[in-house]
Each structure stands twice: as structure tokens, then as C-alpha cells.
Amino acid sequence: MQITGNTILITGGGSGIGRGLAEELHKLGNQVIIAGRRKQALEETAHANPGMQAIAFDVESAKGVREFAAQITTNFPTLNVLINNAGIMRDENLLAQQADLADAEAIISTNLLGPIRLTAALLPHLQQQPASTIINVTSGLAYVPLAITPTYCATKAALHSYSDSLRYQLRKSSVEVIELAPPYVQTQLMNGAEDPRAMPLKEFIAEVMSLLKTVPTPKAIYVEKVKFLSLAEAQGRYEATFEGLNAAMSAESL
To answer: Which is catalytic among the residues 143, 152, 162, 184?
Structure first.
């Protein structure tokens, strides 16, 4: 991925990892557009970074995604980088589920259908650019799930698989596909901002930016702290890692 001179769209760019990436890429001279549902957070981030653009849209709406993609490509014809970062994470007790499965369906709509729909809507435009990149933000939990948030983990595993297939189908095109799999990071997701067990956000963003500058860019961005999860199966320790990750949480929450 070329690290400067881009026009970059980041969903979920008003806070957490999305904001961190937006600000660092903005500092490098890229045109950055942040998008998501929380208008106030987007506007606060854009105000703090003069020149950054903010647009509110509902990633759960299929029609809204199509309309948003048309708006973006009209207003920013040089758009060549899409970062699918928006996501939600909720506890779910599968032994006492909601009758309407509202949480599960919202997670699937935001974390999986949202990126798939937005990628599909923007792909014809991205293919017309001399060089373009799609970055899908998954999770270390795509590789070893945390049982108290099963649908979140399932969507991230699905997005990991989708990214591999998308990369293969685009292998002869000018579109690069990168997976970014964060570990547990200090963000508002699942109230982790103050959790000392989580990786500080600034450290995570700094390591990600260093890896993005690697030539050639890795097809998957794994900071050191996520490799405990992402390499568990390859290193023959999946069962032990799964049990260790879930033992304390299961005892407390399920």
C-alpha cells in the first residue's frame, strides 16, 4: 500500500482504532474521510484535524450504503483506499437469548454485511484507480473466539475468510486487499478503554503504521500482541489457547 497521496475512506472513524488510523494517515498528507453513525463523534474528530472530512451514514442500511457510496465517489472521485473498520461488540448468553435476536442481527449487519455491502458498492470505482487498497479490520478473536461474545467473533472470522476470497479474486487487478487483525486494544468497545490488560491504543496504531509502511505490505497486519491468537492453530495450541482465554470469562459471565 502506498502510504501517502491517497484519498481514504474510514468507517467508524470517529473513535477508537478508526480515529487513530484516520489521524495518523491524515498527518501523512492523505485526504481522509471518516464515516459512521455517530455524527457528533465524527464532527469532533474532523474539527480536531483540520482538512479531514466527516459524513454520517447508517452502515446497517443496505439502501443507505448504496446511496452513501454514490455520494462518496461523486464528491471524492480520487477515492482509492477503503478501510472497513466500523463494528459493534456485545455480550450474548446463548442459553437465555432475546426472542428477536436483536443484538445478534445488529452485530451481523454492522460487522459483516456492512463491509460486504460497502465493498461491493465501491469496488467498480476502486478498480478504475491506478492503485487502490481495501483494508478489512477483523480481530484476533476471528482466530480464537471469546465465548461471551459469539456473534462478534463469528462475524470477524467470516470477514477474515471473505478477505482471503476477495484478495484472490482481485489478484490480477490493481486492488490490494489487506486484513488488519487487532488484539484487545484500549478502546470503548466492551468498555476496554481503561483495562490494563488491553494494548494501549497509541502503541497499537504506531505498530500498525510501521507495518503498513513495509514494502511490500503484508496481506495481513498482525501486531506482536495479536499473534498469541492469530497463530494459535498453526502452532498447535488452539485448544489450550481457547480454554485459557475463556475460562475466567465463562466462570464470571455464563
So the answer is: 152
Residue 94, all three cell numbers: 446463548
Name the packing angle between helices 201-212 and 16-27 (round to 10°).
50
Convert the pLDDT of each residue in 31-75 to its tens digit. 999 999 999 999 999 999 999 999 999 888 999 999 999 999 999
Q: How far apart, in whole angstroms, are the C-alpha atoms of residue 229 and residue 77?
A: 39
Residue 183 three-state SS: coil
Topology of 7-253 in CATH?
Rossmann fold (3.40.50)
Who's near 148: CB < 8 A, 6+ residues apart?
91, 92, 93, 246, 249, 250, 253, 254
How far apart CA 18 and CA 248 sit, in angstroms, is 29
Query: What does each C-alpha distance from 93 to 11, 62, 250, 253 come to in angstroms?
Result: 28, 28, 10, 8
Predicted TM-score (pTM) of the model is 0.95
Sort strands 7-11 and 132-137 into parallel, antiparallel or unpaired: unpaired
- 108, 60 contact by CB (below 8 A): no
Number of neighbours of residue 248 by Cβ within 10 angstroms:
9
Q: Is 238 a catalytic residue?
A: no
Domain spans in the chain, listed from the N-terminal domain onward: 7-253
